[in-house]
Predict the structure.
Amino acid sequence: MLFDPLVDMGIQTDLNTREGVEKQIQFDRFHWCMLRNGHLEIWDETTNCLMGRTRAYIPKNVMINSKWFREHMEELEATRKSFDETPH
């Protein structure tokens, strides 16, 4: 499996909907974990068997900005919460 998380990942979401914000939060968390942990594993949930694993991903010339990520997630969480507070 050839996979570069900085190039080969993307998502289109509508941040004007709760579902879109939720998808963006999930995507951003996955991307963040991928950059920090360096591996992607695919498991079969019925047999609990490892189906595949990428090689270690060690990005070059990339600086992980924890402060930016925390603030970004807080903004998305606030947006998600605003949908819960808006009367339907």
